[in-house]
Amino acid sequence: MNVIEIHSLTKTYGKSRGITDISFHVEEGEIFGFIGPNGAGKSTTIRTLLSLIRPTSGSATIFGKDCIEYAPEIAKEVGYLPSEVFYYDNMKVIDLLKYSASFYKKDCTQRIKELADMLNLDVTKKIDDLSLGNKKKVGIIQGLLHEPKLIILDEPTSGLDPLMQQKFFELLQAENEKGATILFSSHILSEVQRLCDRVAIIKEGKIVQVEKISTLKENNHKKFKIEIMDDIDLSYFELAGVSNLEVKDHHVSFLFRGDINMVMKKIADIEITNLWIEEPDLEEIFMHYYEKEA
To answer: Looking at the predicted structure, is the pLDDT value of residue 7 above 80?
Structure first.
Protein backbone atom coordinates (compact mmCIF):
# COMPACT_ATOMS: atom_id res chain seq x y z
CA MET A 1 0.00 0.00 0.00
CA ASN A 2 1.14 3.54 -0.74
CA VAL A 3 0.75 5.95 2.18
CA ILE A 4 1.36 8.98 -0.08
CA GLU A 5 0.44 9.26 -3.75
CA ILE A 6 1.12 12.45 -5.69
CA HIS A 7 -0.12 12.81 -9.28
CA SER A 8 0.89 15.70 -11.56
CA LEU A 9 0.83 18.16 -8.65
CA THR A 10 1.31 21.75 -9.80
CA LYS A 11 1.32 24.98 -7.81
CA THR A 12 1.98 28.31 -9.48
CA TYR A 13 2.27 31.73 -7.86
CA GLY A 14 1.35 34.07 -10.69
CA LYS A 15 4.48 34.32 -12.81
CA SER A 16 6.69 32.88 -10.05
CA ARG A 17 7.68 29.24 -10.22
CA GLY A 18 6.25 26.88 -7.63
CA ILE A 19 6.13 23.19 -8.57
CA THR A 20 5.26 21.63 -11.92
CA ASP A 21 3.80 18.20 -12.61
CA ILE A 22 5.20 16.51 -9.47
CA SER A 23 4.48 12.75 -9.26
CA PHE A 24 5.82 10.15 -6.83
CA HIS A 25 4.57 7.76 -4.16
CA VAL A 26 5.74 6.73 -0.71
CA GLU A 27 5.18 3.12 0.32
CA GLU A 28 3.96 2.07 3.74
CA GLY A 29 6.82 1.63 6.21
CA GLU A 30 9.57 3.23 4.14
CA ILE A 31 11.78 6.23 4.83
CA PHE A 32 11.55 8.26 1.64
CA GLY A 33 13.99 11.05 0.86
CA PHE A 34 12.94 14.23 -0.92
CA ILE A 35 16.05 16.06 -1.95
CA GLY A 36 17.09 19.18 -3.81
CA PRO A 37 18.76 22.52 -3.17
CA ASN A 38 17.00 25.30 -1.26
CA GLY A 39 14.28 26.85 -3.40
CA ALA A 40 13.77 23.71 -5.55
CA GLY A 41 10.13 23.26 -4.42
CA LYS A 42 10.37 20.78 -1.52
CA SER A 43 8.45 22.89 1.01
CA THR A 44 5.81 23.88 -1.56
CA THR A 45 5.18 20.19 -2.31
CA ILE A 46 4.92 19.34 1.39
CA ARG A 47 2.64 22.28 2.20
CA THR A 48 0.36 21.33 -0.67
CA LEU A 49 0.35 17.73 0.51
CA LEU A 50 -0.68 18.91 4.00
CA SER A 51 -3.43 21.12 2.55
CA LEU A 52 -1.75 24.25 3.95
CA ILE A 53 -1.84 25.60 0.40
CA ARG A 54 -4.10 24.50 -2.44
CA PRO A 55 -2.69 23.05 -5.65
CA THR A 56 -3.26 24.80 -8.98
CA SER A 57 -3.80 21.36 -10.55
CA GLY A 58 -3.08 17.70 -9.96
CA SER A 59 -3.95 15.65 -6.90
CA ALA A 60 -2.46 14.00 -3.83
CA THR A 61 -3.70 11.38 -1.39
CA ILE A 62 -2.55 10.29 2.07
CA PHE A 63 -3.81 6.91 3.37
CA GLY A 64 -5.82 6.72 0.13
CA LYS A 65 -7.81 9.86 1.01
CA ASP A 66 -7.76 13.11 -0.93
CA CYS A 67 -5.47 15.59 0.83
CA ILE A 68 -7.79 18.58 0.47
CA GLU A 69 -11.14 16.90 1.06
CA TYR A 70 -10.08 14.83 4.09
CA ALA A 71 -7.43 17.19 5.51
CA PRO A 72 -8.72 17.29 9.16
CA GLU A 73 -9.12 13.50 9.27
CA ILE A 74 -5.66 12.89 7.79
CA ALA A 75 -4.02 15.38 10.19
CA LYS A 76 -4.84 13.13 13.18
CA GLU A 77 -2.39 10.50 11.92
CA VAL A 78 0.32 12.81 10.56
CA GLY A 79 3.25 14.38 12.39
CA TYR A 80 4.77 17.42 10.66
CA LEU A 81 7.95 19.33 11.37
CA PRO A 82 8.28 22.49 9.25
CA SER A 83 11.68 23.83 8.23
CA GLU A 84 11.21 26.83 10.53
CA VAL A 85 9.25 26.75 13.78
CA PHE A 86 7.45 29.73 15.32
CA TYR A 87 5.67 29.71 18.69
CA TYR A 88 4.00 31.90 21.31
CA ASP A 89 7.15 33.18 22.99
CA ASN A 90 5.66 33.64 26.47
CA MET A 91 4.32 30.10 26.76
CA LYS A 92 6.19 27.45 28.69
CA VAL A 93 7.31 24.48 26.58
CA ILE A 94 5.18 22.01 28.57
CA ASP A 95 2.05 24.17 28.16
CA LEU A 96 2.61 24.38 24.40
CA LEU A 97 3.09 20.61 24.14
CA LYS A 98 -0.02 19.91 26.24
CA TYR A 99 -1.97 22.32 24.05
CA SER A 100 -0.71 20.47 20.94
CA ALA A 101 -1.62 17.11 22.50
CA SER A 102 -5.18 18.31 23.20
CA PHE A 103 -5.95 18.18 19.46
CA TYR A 104 -5.44 14.40 19.32
CA LYS A 105 -7.88 13.36 22.08
CA LYS A 106 -5.38 10.98 23.66
CA ASP A 107 -3.17 11.14 26.74
CA CYS A 108 0.33 12.04 25.50
CA THR A 109 1.83 12.92 28.92
CA GLN A 110 4.18 9.93 29.13
CA ARG A 111 5.18 10.25 25.48
CA ILE A 112 6.08 13.95 25.93
CA LYS A 113 8.25 13.08 28.94
CA GLU A 114 10.04 10.27 27.03
CA LEU A 115 10.79 12.49 24.05
CA ALA A 116 11.91 15.46 26.18
CA ASP A 117 14.28 13.19 28.14
CA MET A 118 15.64 11.67 24.95
CA LEU A 119 16.28 15.07 23.38
CA ASN A 120 17.53 16.62 26.64
CA LEU A 121 14.93 19.42 26.60
CA ASP A 122 13.87 21.37 29.70
CA VAL A 123 10.08 21.66 29.30
CA THR A 124 9.72 24.14 32.19
CA LYS A 125 11.41 26.95 30.22
CA LYS A 126 9.64 29.67 28.28
CA ILE A 127 9.80 29.39 24.48
CA ASP A 128 11.44 32.83 24.34
CA ASP A 129 14.38 31.62 26.45
CA LEU A 130 15.23 28.71 24.13
CA SER A 131 18.07 28.56 21.61
CA LEU A 132 17.29 27.81 17.94
CA GLY A 133 18.29 24.16 18.48
CA ASN A 134 16.01 23.77 21.49
CA LYS A 135 13.10 25.36 19.61
CA LYS A 136 13.70 22.73 16.92
CA LYS A 137 13.49 20.03 19.61
CA VAL A 138 10.08 21.41 20.65
CA GLY A 139 9.01 21.04 17.01
CA ILE A 140 10.26 17.44 16.89
CA ILE A 141 8.33 16.52 20.07
CA GLN A 142 5.25 18.33 18.78
CA GLY A 143 5.41 16.30 15.57
CA LEU A 144 5.87 12.94 17.31
CA LEU A 145 3.90 13.19 20.58
CA HIS A 146 0.73 11.55 19.17
CA GLU A 147 2.69 8.61 17.63
CA PRO A 148 1.63 9.37 14.04
CA LYS A 149 1.50 6.76 11.28
CA LEU A 150 3.10 9.23 8.84
CA ILE A 151 5.93 11.62 9.77
CA ILE A 152 6.69 14.48 7.37
CA LEU A 153 9.94 16.34 8.03
CA ASP A 154 11.01 19.46 6.15
CA GLU A 155 14.75 20.18 6.61
CA PRO A 156 14.52 18.77 10.16
CA THR A 157 18.15 18.95 11.31
CA SER A 158 18.82 22.68 10.84
CA GLY A 159 19.76 24.12 14.23
CA LEU A 160 20.60 20.75 15.81
CA ASP A 161 24.18 20.07 16.86
CA PRO A 162 25.83 16.87 15.49
CA LEU A 163 25.26 14.88 18.71
CA MET A 164 21.57 15.79 18.74
CA GLN A 165 21.29 14.99 15.02
CA GLN A 166 22.55 11.49 15.83
CA LYS A 167 19.89 11.09 18.57
CA PHE A 168 17.24 12.44 16.21
CA PHE A 169 18.16 9.89 13.50
CA GLU A 170 18.02 7.09 16.08
CA LEU A 171 14.59 8.33 17.16
CA LEU A 172 13.36 8.33 13.54
CA GLN A 173 14.69 4.82 12.93
CA ALA A 174 12.93 3.62 16.11
CA GLU A 175 9.64 5.18 14.92
CA ASN A 176 10.09 3.57 11.52
CA GLU A 177 10.70 0.16 13.14
CA LYS A 178 7.42 0.62 15.04
CA GLY A 179 5.69 1.02 11.67
CA ALA A 180 5.73 4.76 10.92
CA THR A 181 6.25 5.88 7.33
CA ILE A 182 8.59 8.86 6.95
CA LEU A 183 8.94 11.53 4.25
CA PHE A 184 12.28 13.26 4.84
CA SER A 185 13.03 16.45 2.93
CA SER A 186 16.61 17.73 2.93
CA HIS A 187 19.30 19.46 0.91
CA ILE A 188 21.98 17.56 2.88
CA LEU A 189 22.75 14.44 0.90
CA SER A 190 24.61 12.55 3.61
CA GLU A 191 21.44 12.57 5.77
CA VAL A 192 19.34 11.10 3.00
CA GLN A 193 22.02 8.57 2.07
CA ARG A 194 22.12 7.40 5.68
CA LEU A 195 18.39 7.20 6.40
CA CYS A 196 16.36 6.63 3.27
CA ASP A 197 15.35 3.64 1.14
CA ARG A 198 14.37 5.63 -1.94
CA VAL A 199 14.77 9.23 -2.99
CA ALA A 200 13.04 11.75 -5.26
CA ILE A 201 15.37 14.42 -6.65
CA ILE A 202 13.70 17.78 -7.32
CA LYS A 203 15.19 20.58 -9.38
CA GLU A 204 13.54 23.92 -10.22
CA GLY A 205 10.09 22.66 -9.27
CA LYS A 206 10.28 19.39 -11.25
CA ILE A 207 11.15 15.81 -10.29
CA VAL A 208 14.25 14.76 -12.22
CA GLN A 209 14.58 11.23 -10.82
CA VAL A 210 13.00 8.81 -8.34
CA GLU A 211 15.38 6.02 -7.44
CA LYS A 212 16.47 3.56 -4.78
CA ILE A 213 19.51 4.88 -2.90
CA SER A 214 21.32 1.58 -3.58
CA THR A 215 20.59 1.79 -7.34
CA LEU A 216 21.58 5.43 -7.44
CA LYS A 217 25.00 4.46 -6.11
CA GLU A 218 25.44 1.13 -7.92
CA ASN A 219 24.34 2.22 -11.37
CA ASN A 220 26.18 5.44 -11.20
CA HIS A 221 29.77 6.37 -11.25
CA LYS A 222 33.02 4.97 -9.97
CA LYS A 223 35.52 7.53 -8.73
CA PHE A 224 39.02 7.03 -10.17
CA LYS A 225 42.20 8.62 -8.91
CA ILE A 226 45.48 7.67 -10.61
CA GLU A 227 48.99 8.72 -9.68
CA ILE A 228 51.12 8.69 -12.86
CA MET A 229 54.86 8.68 -13.49
CA ASP A 230 54.99 11.17 -16.38
CA ASP A 231 52.94 14.10 -17.61
CA ILE A 232 49.96 13.09 -19.69
CA ASP A 233 47.62 14.87 -22.05
CA LEU A 234 44.09 15.31 -20.69
CA SER A 235 42.62 13.94 -23.93
CA TYR A 236 44.06 10.48 -23.16
CA PHE A 237 41.20 9.81 -20.72
CA GLU A 238 38.45 11.49 -22.72
CA LEU A 239 36.38 8.32 -23.11
CA ALA A 240 32.64 7.79 -23.28
CA GLY A 241 31.37 7.70 -19.69
CA VAL A 242 34.17 9.85 -18.22
CA SER A 243 33.23 13.10 -16.47
CA ASN A 244 34.75 15.60 -13.99
CA LEU A 245 38.20 14.91 -15.52
CA GLU A 246 41.10 16.69 -13.82
CA VAL A 247 44.89 16.43 -14.05
CA LYS A 248 46.99 18.00 -11.33
CA ASP A 249 50.59 17.34 -10.24
CA HIS A 250 50.81 13.79 -11.68
CA HIS A 251 47.33 12.94 -10.34
CA VAL A 252 44.45 12.17 -12.69
CA SER A 253 40.92 12.04 -11.24
CA PHE A 254 37.53 11.47 -12.88
CA LEU A 255 34.10 9.87 -12.46
CA PHE A 256 33.30 6.97 -14.78
CA ARG A 257 30.08 5.25 -15.71
CA GLY A 258 30.04 2.26 -18.03
CA ASP A 259 32.22 -0.78 -18.75
CA ILE A 260 35.10 -0.53 -16.29
CA ASN A 261 37.31 -2.74 -18.51
CA MET A 262 37.67 0.12 -21.01
CA VAL A 263 39.29 2.31 -18.35
CA MET A 264 41.46 -0.50 -17.02
CA LYS A 265 42.87 -1.13 -20.52
CA LYS A 266 43.75 2.56 -20.82
CA ILE A 267 45.42 2.54 -17.40
CA ALA A 268 47.38 -0.64 -18.29
CA ASP A 269 49.08 1.22 -21.16
CA ILE A 270 50.68 3.90 -18.96
CA GLU A 271 53.17 3.87 -16.10
CA ILE A 272 51.34 4.46 -12.81
CA THR A 273 52.54 4.58 -9.21
CA ASN A 274 49.16 4.27 -7.51
CA LEU A 275 45.47 3.75 -8.22
CA TRP A 276 42.31 4.36 -6.15
CA ILE A 277 38.80 3.31 -7.23
CA GLU A 278 35.99 4.37 -4.90
CA GLU A 279 32.24 4.61 -4.76
CA PRO A 280 31.45 8.32 -5.04
CA ASP A 281 29.26 9.69 -2.29
CA LEU A 282 25.73 10.73 -3.12
CA GLU A 283 26.81 14.37 -3.21
CA GLU A 284 29.05 13.80 -6.23
CA ILE A 285 26.46 11.63 -7.99
CA PHE A 286 23.82 14.25 -7.31
CA MET A 287 25.87 17.23 -8.49
CA HIS A 288 26.86 15.36 -11.62
CA TYR A 289 23.21 14.55 -12.25
CA TYR A 290 22.31 18.22 -11.89
CA GLU A 291 25.06 19.29 -14.31
CA LYS A 292 23.91 16.65 -16.81
CA GLU A 293 20.32 17.88 -16.58
CA ALA A 294 21.44 21.49 -16.99
So the answer is: yes
Q: Domain 220-293, CATH 2.60.40 — does that match? A: no
Residue 285 has pLDDT above 80, yes or no: no
In the chain, where the domains are located: 2-217, 220-293
Q: Which CATH class is domain 2-217?
A: alpha beta
Q: For residues 45 and 240, which has the higher predicted lDDT (pLDDT)?
A: 45
Helix/strand/coil (H/E/C) assignment for every residue in the chain = CEEEEEEEEEEEECCEEEEEEEEEEEECCCEEEEECCCCCCHHHHHHHHCCCCCCCEEEEEECCEECCCCHHHHHCCEEEECCCCCCCCCCEHHHHHHHHHHHHCCCCHHHHHHHHHHCCCCCCCEHHHCCHHHHHHHHHHHHHCCCCCEEEEECCCCCCCHHHHHHHHHHHHHHHHCCCEEEEEECCHHHHHHHCCEEEEEECCEEEEEEEHHHHHHCCCEEEEEEECCCCCHHHHCCCCEEEEEEECCEEEEEECCCHHHHHHHHHCCCEEEEEEECCCHHHHHHHHHHHHC
Whether residue 189 is predicted with pLDDT greater than 90 in this model: the reply is no
User: pTM of the full predicted structure?
Assistant: 0.81
| CB contact at 8 A, 74 and 236 | no
Tell me: pLDDT of 180 over 70.
Answer: yes
Q: In the structure, what pLDDT confidence band is assigned to residue 172 with cuts at 50, 70 and 90?
A: very high
